[in-house]
């Protein structure tokens, strides 16, 4: 290596002796024979033509005259990984050549070891050149280093990880990462997030990674239009330890690349393919045949994937798959029947946007008796789900604990009540955008559940309306701890009062955007809670007043930890006074867009037993600069403060808060 850096022109590289016929002509460019010359890094010329002085073209260094084949042989004989990293600083040409060397092509003979000992003193000089004394001393390669300092760390599994986004993702940068991490075992995890400006990343970059990082275990590629089968095949050929693959919006990748991955990476446990429009059944068939350890599969918006792929996958590895997510695929009832029969290890299943699946598909899946271990099921935007299919799923999944149903227009009260009766292990139920469900269905679920239901959430169900009837108190849902009702405009005080009578053990109450309810509707929930409310969220309930807050703090002040009154315009300083007097464990308070003033902030600051961690007064126009000393006092315990859109607080006050409350995240 020393001969490369100490070349003087009279060796075999230039048999003619001098570079010029007349030695005097070389005085401007030559410093004589056998002189070590250090050329500092400098910007490249904006033109590719050689620079001419007095009609004579400037000669390239002799080492640059060597063809790539010769340099390749020199580089692969370098004794150590640090020497190769040092050479990568010279030029992009050298970097790309170094990144093309596979680990198996590096010489490790006794001769190489002897050369390393003989030239150790010269190598130390190169090391001093390659290692900067101060951060930022390097100026080569447009800021790209073989071992980039921006983000290079070992994750919890002990291997190096790297994440590139936008313009940072390029072939040159991946080559630098490959060369710089090769001596440290290479990357174990690589994540690339592209965008419209990511144009310099192609298959060449992935090829470089595959050569220098054979231990790569996790690969994630998002929104990369220029990366295709060639790069993915290189990963498959050299990175046999790959366990997790995540592809999203990579239109150039087809079945060819994924089949190569499946055939060469038998340790795959998790595969995610989203919006890859050229991936079809062949990929899933190959994964099923060649990846016996596959546990998690996610396929979204891949229109070429159909029944043939799903059936082949589950018939091959259904006994090992524990988690599956299928959305926006062209599959029919056949796929659901196969899942229901072969998914014996399935624990978590999510289905969405399956417009070709009919009522029979969900019915057969429940009747297949193969989902005995299923614990979590989510169904969204599937028009084929009906009351009959829902009841079959409840009976066919005896261990189901979490169920979510969204945008399924055929499901009515009869279906959800029958499901609640059949699913004996159900602990969490969420219904969203199911407009055929009414108040009878909601009350029927609570009255007929198995006694294990702990969380119940309803959102955007427009069919729920107050109905005047007398509810027989034959049973109640004593197991329910959390109740969430969001944006159901038809629900009023009467319906909410009935829910309060059925749920005596609530600790978490979330009533969001219910503009038709008042204090009298919420009071039954507050008064019936026997174990004490821990979290109360009434954001968007515009008719709530200070009287309700006073009752909540009086009955549950010793347990209350989180109180959200965002958008409750009738709330004033009276509520803050009740909070300061009765609450001892409260850690988060949100009174955004309420009618509180500086006096209310002062009351909170004067409560010695309060230890607030998060306070939001966003949009409170009556809060002004006078609150500065009180906010500073509260800031001793705060980690989050939101004072956005408080027009009475000046920028000077904000700057003082930022200066004094340096431990607190302040939104202003």
Notes on the structure:
- With 668 residues, this protein is an alpha/beta fold.
- 34% of the residues lie in helices and 15% in strands.
- The strands form 2 sheets. It has a 21-stranded mixed β-sheet, with helices on one face. It has a two-stranded antiparallel sheet with strand order 1-2.
- Pathway: Protein modification; protein ubiquitination.
- One of its GO terms (cellular component) is SCF ubiquitin ligase complex.
- Keywords: Ethylene signaling pathway, Nucleus, Ubl conjugation pathway.
- It is found in: Nucleus.
- Its main location: nucleus.
Indicate the low-confidence ranges by residue numbers: 1-39, 42-55, 110-158
**Oligomeric assembly:** single chain
Distance from first to last alpha carbon: 59 Å
Q: What's the story with the biggest beta sheet? A: 21 strands, mixed
Radius of gyration: 34 Å
Number of helices in the DSSP assignment? 25
Provide the structure class. Answer: alpha/beta
How many β strands by DSSP? 23
Shape: flat
Which percent range fits the helix content? 25-40%
Residue-averaged pLDDT:
82
Strand fraction equals 5-15%
List the helices and strands and how they pair.
Elements: H1 2-5, E1 52-53, E2 56-57, H2 62-65, H3 68-75, H4 81-87, H5 92-99, H6 110-118, H7 120-130, E3 153-154, E4 160-165, H8 171-182, E5 187-193, H9 203-212, E6 218-222, H10 229-238, E7 244-248, H11 255-264, E8 270-274, H12 281-290, E9 296-300, H13 307-317, E10 323-327, H14 333-342, E11 348-352, H15 359-367, E12 376-380, H16 387-396, E13 402-406, H17 413-422, E14 428-432, H18 439-448, E15 455-459, E16 482-486, H19 493-502, E17 508-512, H20 519-528, E18 535-537, H21 546-556, E19 562-564, H22 573-582, E20 588-590, H23 598-605, E21 614-616, H24 628-634, E22 640-642, H25 651-660, E23 665-667
Parallel strand pairs: 4-5, 5-6, 6-7, 7-8, 8-9, 9-10, 10-11, 11-12, 12-13, 13-14, 14-15, 15-16, 16-17, 17-18, 18-19, 19-20, 20-21, 21-22, 22-23
Antiparallel strand pairs: 1-2, 3-4
């Amino acid at each position: 290596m020393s001969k490369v850096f100490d070349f003087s022109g009279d060796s075999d590289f230039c048999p003619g002796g001098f570079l010029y016929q007349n030695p005097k002509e070389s005085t401007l460019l030559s410093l004589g024979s056998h002189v070590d010359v250090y050329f500092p890094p400098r910007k490249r010329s904006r033109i590719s033509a050689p620079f001419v002085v007095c009609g004579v073209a400037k000669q390239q260094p002799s080492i640059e005259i060597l063809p790539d084949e010769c340099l390749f042989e020199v580089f692969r004989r370098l004794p150590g990984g640090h020497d190769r990293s040092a050479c990568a600083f010279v030029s992009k040409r050298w970097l790309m050549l170094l990144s093309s060397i596979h680990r198996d092509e590096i010489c490790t003979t006794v001769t190489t070891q002897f050369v390393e000992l003989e030239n150790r003193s010269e190598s130390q000089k190169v090391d001093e050149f390659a290692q900067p004394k101060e951060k930022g001393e390097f100026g080569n390669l447009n800021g790209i280093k073989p071992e980039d300092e921006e983000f290079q760390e070992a994750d919890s599994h002990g291997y190096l990880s790297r994440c590139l986004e936008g313009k940072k993702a390029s072939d040159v940068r991946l080559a630098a990462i490959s060369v710089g991490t090769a001596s440290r075992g290479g990357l174990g995890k690589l994540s690339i997030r592209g965008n419209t400006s990511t144009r310099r990343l192609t298959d060449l970059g992935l090829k470089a990674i595959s050569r220098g990082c054979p231990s790569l275990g996790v690969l994630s590629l998002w929104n990369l239009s220029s990366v295709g089968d060639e790069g993915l095949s290189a990963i498959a050929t050299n990175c046999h330890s790959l366990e997790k693959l995540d592809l999203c919006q990579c239109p150039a990748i087809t079945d060819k690349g994924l089949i190569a991955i499946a055939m060469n990476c038998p340790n795959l446990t998790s595969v995610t393919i989203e919006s890859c429009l050229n991936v079809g059944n062949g990929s899933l068939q190959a994964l099923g045949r060649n990846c016996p350890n596959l546990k998690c599969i996610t396929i979204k918006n891949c229109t070429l994937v159909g029944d043939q792929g799903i059936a082949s996958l589950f018939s091959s590895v259904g006994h090992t798959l524990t988690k599956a997510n299928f959305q926006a695929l062209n599959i029919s009832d056949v796929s659901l029947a196969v899942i229901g029969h072969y998914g014996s290890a399935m624990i978590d299943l999510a289905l969405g946007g399956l417009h070709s699946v009919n009522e029979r598909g969900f019915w057969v899946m429940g009747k297949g008796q193969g989902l005995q271990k299923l614990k979590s099921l989510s169904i969204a935007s599937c028009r084929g789900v009906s009351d009959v299919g829902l009841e079959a799923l409840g009976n066919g999944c005896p261990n189901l604990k979490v169920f979510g149903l969204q945008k399924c227009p055929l499901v009515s009260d009869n279906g959800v009540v029958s499901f609640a009766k059949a699913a004996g292990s159900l602990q969490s139920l969420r219904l969203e955008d199911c407009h055929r469900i009414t108040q009878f269905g909601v009350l029927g679920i609570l009255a007929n559940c198995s006694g294990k239901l702990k969380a119940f959430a309803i959102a955007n169900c427009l069919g729920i309306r107050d109905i005047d009837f007398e509810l027989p108190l034959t049973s109640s849902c004593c197991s329910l701890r959390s109740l969430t009702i969001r944006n159901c405009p038809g629900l009023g005080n009467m319906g909410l009062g009935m829910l309060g009578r059925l749920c005596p053990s609530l600790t978490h109450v979330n009533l969001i955007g219910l503009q038709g309810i008042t204090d009298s509707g919420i009071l039954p929930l507050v008064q019936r809670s026997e174990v004490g409310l821990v979290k109360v969220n009434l954001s968007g309930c515009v008719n709530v007043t200070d009287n309700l807050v006073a009752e909540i703090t009086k009955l549950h002040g010793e347990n209350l930890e989180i109180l959200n009154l965002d958008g409750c315009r009738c709330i004033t300083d009276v509520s803050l006074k009740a909070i300061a007097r009765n609450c001892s464990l409260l850690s988060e308070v949100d009174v955004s867009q309420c009618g509180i003033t500086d006096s209310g902030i002062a009351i909170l600051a004067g409560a010695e037993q309060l230890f607030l961690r998060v306070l939001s007064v966003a949009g409170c126009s009556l809060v002004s600069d006078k609150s500065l000393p009180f906010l500073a006092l509260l800031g001793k315990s705060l980690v989050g403060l939101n004072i956005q859109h408080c027009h009475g607080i000046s920028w000077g006050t904000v700057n003082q808060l930022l200066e004094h409350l340096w431990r607190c995240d302040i939104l202003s």
